[in-house]
């Protein structure tokens, strides 16, 4: 696992958005965050033929609250198969730790992510000049209404990777 590979995918997908939001990606800070996520088993990824297609990182905020640090899918791989594989890994972890709340921050200029969060059922809990804080209640993950999650997955065309 090469952490630079994750950084490269992030820059490919989020560099222009981060710059537009006034928060360019800091390689050193970012690589440190990835390393921390890996050490705590909170780095979830999807590979095909040894190529990183997607990944997400989570951070435990305590008391059942989990923060989505990163959620990145290669632009050419934004389809149902990759999305479902990544989400399965995240949900499996959230169930194992008995998560109650999922928190995520999104730059306002990242319109695709704003729509994505709404489709998944996240609610805006705070707003700042450059972005939103979203939360999703996970009252009982075993009975989680995954229809919203799978609804979004159905939006991706079914292509092979």
TrEMBL record:
Pfam families: Acetyltransf_1. This is GNAT family N-acetyltransferase. PROSITE patterns: GNAT (PS51186). Residues 1-145 form the N-acetyltransferase domain. InterPro entries: Acyl_CoA_acyltransferase, GNAT_dom.
């Amino acid at each position: 696992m090469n952490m630079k590979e994750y950084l490269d995918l992030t820059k490919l997908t989020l560099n222009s958005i981060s710059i537009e939001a006034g928060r360019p990606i800091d390689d050193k800070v970012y690589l440190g965050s990835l390393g921390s996520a890996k050490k705590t088993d909170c780095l979830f990824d999807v590979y095909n033929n040894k190529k990183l297609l997607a990944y997400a990182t989570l951070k435990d905020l305590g008391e059942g609250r989990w923060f989505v640090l990163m959620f990145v899918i290669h632009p050419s791989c934004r389809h149902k198969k990759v999305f479902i594989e990544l989400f399965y890994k995240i949900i499996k972890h959230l169930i194992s730790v008995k998560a109650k709340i999922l928190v995520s921050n999104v730059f306002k200029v990242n319109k695709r992510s704003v729509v994505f969060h709404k489709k998944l059922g996240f609610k805006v809990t705070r707003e700042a000049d450059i972005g939103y804080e979203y939360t999703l209640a996970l009252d009982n993950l075993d009975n989680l209404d995954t229809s919203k999650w799978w609804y979004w997955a159905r939006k991706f065309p079914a292509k092979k990777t």
